[in-house]
Write a structure and sequence with these properties.
5 strands, 5 helices, 33% helix, elongated
């Protein structure tokens, strides 16, 4: 994995387009350094009540995010981009999943935040943490919520010529 070192501030406008644009900026930055090969980049955000939740900056923000999400639905949006460094071919897309969070108690939030797990995750949680106990259900791509929408990623890699189309 090669960090892109780009500013991760989202552009103004629709969140789906902004997240996809950020993934594309990341992929292009790395492709410009490697010179050959296909670079895949992604970025994920959580959106609730029209508010974009990235990674929490600290324990208090993590607690606030988890309390806001508790017992409610939100969207997980992942922008994915592939850039062929040699040819310049580009493909990008976004995956959107809806997640229903469990009605977990304050004690679960406190223990989860104390574990340090929320700090590198959009929305302050990972669906697989606590044996899935934070989440009641997913509508859409489960792998998107885990971190990389595999179905969309395969299509992107087909678009840039890395993998062949599936045969029936």
């Amino acid at each position: 994995m090669i960090p892109s070192d780009v500013d991760e501030t989202l552009d103004a406008g629709p969140v789906t387009e902004a997240v996809t644009g950020l993934a594309l900026r990341k992929a292009r930055a790395v492709a410009g350094r490697v010179g050959v090969g296909v670079v895949l980049a992604a970025d994920t955000v959580v959106v609730i009540d029209g508010i974009v939740l990235g990674k929490p900056a600290g324990p208090e923000e993590a607690r606030e995010m988890l309390a806001r999400l508790r017992g409610r639905q939100h969207e997980v949006i992942t922008g994915v981009a592939a850039v062929d460094a040699g040819t310049g071919r580009v493909a990008s897309t976004a995956a959107v999943s809806r997640v229903l969070m469990a009605a977990y108690p304050d004690a679960t939030i406190a223990a989860y935040v104390a574990s340090g797990s929320p700090f590198d995750k959009a929305g302050g949680y990972a669906i697989q943490d606590l044996d899935g106990g934070l989440v009641d259900g997913v509508i859409g791509s489960y792998t998107n919520v885990v971190g990389l929408p595999l179905e969309a990623t395969r299509r992107l890699l087909e678009d840039v010529g890395v993998v062949s189309e599936r045969r029936a």
